[in-house]
């Protein structure tokens, strides 16, 4: 296979990245040792071998277990900084990462510990690497509305460093409207909203993310293709979809990359974007996701550039930063 160095050189933007999903096995082991946490794996190789998933839940079980090594502010700094240095290597100029506070507060790690580590690294990323960023806090949808409200309350002290809220974790059985009232409160606080929808769940969940949660972007959204009316609506309104190709094949949303619908949607005028989701678990960061599309679907340079332009259009960066990136 060709090296596709041009795809690494291409300046890129990432809009769908879970910081906890960027925890590489090497850092997981180092933090386990530093914090005296027991891991159910003997080696980095054994961890990587465990990363075979047949669906979203399979992955989530391992992902939440991995996060147990994150305890101190410095751990969250190191996690975020490692991701940003990877972005620098791959010419990613702007990022809008997600974090899952409930994964940590439910283990007794303070909200401020998580947030302070992350924002200090994002600030260094801006100052030392020139990577601009906006931070998005996600609610875990398998937990209750009440717990989401409690999490939103903790975020109220940090509205200057959180641009929006999102919704992630187990999709099926947890429709967007379960969080309509929490999202309404978030919007009242001036936060933007996004939500995972139409990853494993039906196209109907994309409609309710748009109509009930009033999202600015839909995360994944690939199952929108099952609903022709929805597809036209997405194209007409330029509603962005943050698509994650390697995630979708790793979690068996598509059996093979050659079956992925991202380029079909691009040609239909939908504002699709390329993102890495949980790169430490799914086999690659931004460049690898673009390369996978080049290998399986013959992604052209024109298409690659359109995908990045879509990301700039869909981003929460200010107009000046957007203009700089175009
Ligand atoms: C996730 Cl791929 C995916 N889907 C839903 N929730 C998530 N959290 C982390 N990765
Ligand atoms: Zn995701």
Automatic annotation (TrEMBL):
Annotated cofactor note: Binds 1 zinc ion per subunit.
Enzyme class, broadest EC rank: hydrolase
Source organism, top-level taxon: Bacteria
SUPFAM superfamilies: Metallo-dependent hydrolases
Keyword tags: Hydrolase, Metal-binding, Nucleotide metabolism, Zinc
Annotated binding of substrate, by residue: 278
Known function: Catalyzes the hydrolytic deamination of adenine to hypoxanthine. Plays an important role in the purine salvage pathway and in nitrogen catabolism.
Family: Belongs to the metallo-dependent hydrolases superfamily. Adenosine and AMP deaminases family. Adenine deaminase type 2 subfamily.
Name this protein carries in UniProt: Adenine deaminase
């Amino acid at each position: 296979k060709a090296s596709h160095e041009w795809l690494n050189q291409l300046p890129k933007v990432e809009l769908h990245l879970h910081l906890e999903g960027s925890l590489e096995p090497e850092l997981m082991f180092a933090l386990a040792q530093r914090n005296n946490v027991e891991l159910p794996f003997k080696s980095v190789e054994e961890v990587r071998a465990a990363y075979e998933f047949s669906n979203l839940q399979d992955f989530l079980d391992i992902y939440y277990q991995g996060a147990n090594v994150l305890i101190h502010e410095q751990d969250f700094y190191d996690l975020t900084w490692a991701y940003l240095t990877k972005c620098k290597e791959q010419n990613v100029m702007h990022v809008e990462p997600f974090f899952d506070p409930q994964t940590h507060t439910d283990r007794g790690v303070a909200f401020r510990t998580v947030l302070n580590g992350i924002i200090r690294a994002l600030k260094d990323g801006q100052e030392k690497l020139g990577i601009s960023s906006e931070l998005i806090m996600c609610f875990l949808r398998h937990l209750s509305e009440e717990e989401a409200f409690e999490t939103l309350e903790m975020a109220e002290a940090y509205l200057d460093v959180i641009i929006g809220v999102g919704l992630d974790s187990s999709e099926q059985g947890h429709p967007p409207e379960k969080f309509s009232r929490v999202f309404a409160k978030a919007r009242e606080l001036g936060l933007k909203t996004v939500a995972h929808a139409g990853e494993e769940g039906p196209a109907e969940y994309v409609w309710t993310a748009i109509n009930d949660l009033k999202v600015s972007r839909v995360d994944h959204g690939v199952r929108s293709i099952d609903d022709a009316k929805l597809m036209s609506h997405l194209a007409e309104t330029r509603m962005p979809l943050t698509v994650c190709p390697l995630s979708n094949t790793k979690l068996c949303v598509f059996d093979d990359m050659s079956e992925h619908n991202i380029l079909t949607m691009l040609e239909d005028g939908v504002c699709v974007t390329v993102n890495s989701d949980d790169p430490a678990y799914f086999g690659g960061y931004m460049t690898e996701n673009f390369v996978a599309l080049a290998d399986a679907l013959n992604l052209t340079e024109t298409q690659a550039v359109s995908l990045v332009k879509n990301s700039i259009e869909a981003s929460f960066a200010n107009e000046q930063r957007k203009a700089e990136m175009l």
